[in-house]
Design brief:
- By secondary structure, the protein is of the alpha/beta class.
- It folds into 2 domains: about 220 residues, Periplasmic binding protein-like II (D-Maltodextrin-Binding Protein, domain 2), CATH 3.40.190; about 200 residues, 3-Layer(aba) Sandwich (D-Maltodextrin-Binding Protein, domain 2), CATH 3.40.190.10.
- Strands 7, 8, 9, 10, 11, 13 and 14 form a 7-stranded mixed β-sheet that branches.
- Helix 3 runs antiparallel to helix 16, helix 10 crosses helix 12 and helix 12 packs across helix 21.
- The N terminus is likely disordered.
- Keywords: Signal.
- This is Sugar ABC transporter substrate-binding protein.
Amino acid sequence: MAHSAMSRRSFLNLAAGTGAGVALAACGSSGPGQGEGGSEATYWYLTGAPGEQIRTNTVNRFNKANSDSQIKPTAFENDAYKTKIRTAIGAGQAPTIIWGWGGGGLKSWVDAGQVDDLTDWFAQNPAVKDRLFPSSFGAATVNGKIYAMPCETVEPIVLFYDKRAFDKIKAEPPQSWGEIMSLVPRFNAAGIAPFSLAGQSRWTNMMWLEFLFDRIGGPEVFQAVFDGEKGAWSNPASLDALTKIQDLIKANGFVKGFSSVVADANADQALLYTGKAAMMVHGTWTYGSMAEEGGNFVSGGNLGFMNFPPVEGGKGDPSDTVGNPGQYLAISSKASAEQKETAKKFFSTAVLDDTEIGEWLDTGGVPIVKGSESKIASSKAPEFLTFVNETASKAKVFAQSWDQALSPTAAEKLLDNIAKLFQLSITPQQYVDNMNQVIGQ
């Protein structure tokens, strides 16, 4: 995979992915930022299993091996963390190491001069960069420069399907948009909803548009929106994608009452594993809960999975994907020289070391590290994790979810208009007009 393909990228990742995929625990204790002095580096990150323990274990191993370079970690519950880190960065009191999702949040820190440019450091440490998925650097990149260390796991959005449902109507999984549309009446006739969708959650609807925009027009279509180009939503590929999704809705492609189904309760997953829906477009983080809650649906070999198929005549590369290309660690520009050096040593020696890689794999995650195939082969879910690893590592472009790529203001407008589009209360052209008004905000 060429690094040049990713140097063009400057957007990516979905808070909902981490938030929905991890059952978060109570708030962690508050910790000191840089403003309180001290030579030890500080590091804030999220609570919740399994991530919190893995992050803490990595810090503990680093501290044990580096008596002269210590890191003090503090964990926060998801929503509390977002508020705490925003306030701390605004006050110049950020921790040395800032955990985040990349994309729009990272860009806001860069624009405010609150995080260090790591481009030269990565150039001087090619072994650090070369072991990570090239696609993971898109969300770490702002204006062509790298401002964060990609870390942890990759979570693409994929098309899940129930093999039993396809056996029932004697059909094969769809290999194109046309095949998706031709399957809809067949599943409906068999009393099975073609697709499960938790439409009330809004971001679940967004995943469909992310793929349709990409498959029809390529990654450049949303990149133009992210770059703030005037009228970027007016691209013909946008109107084509928006029209196609409403065609699917009008054809009863989604489960009846989908706009009242909520993702947080895993109700959309339940529709798939109980046989009420044939397919579901969702993040790979749902695999674990389907395996745990779905009886023998997963263990019995009934769950199928594939990348989203191409759209006839589309410009997009069908090997590309969207979702969570990784998580990200930035370094506060307000940290001392000693603290920054400790952070970089942590990045190069501890983040995604062999022990951490094994811990992520044991919990069903795919680390963003090349060459994990042998470890994946001996994992608890080798077929699925191999699929996730190949989808992520072979993607020339791994696009971050739109609501994380955009500013909070634009993201809220985006989700509101997507909900209206799926409820058929606005037309594709009205969506375009509404969203063009908030470009660059």
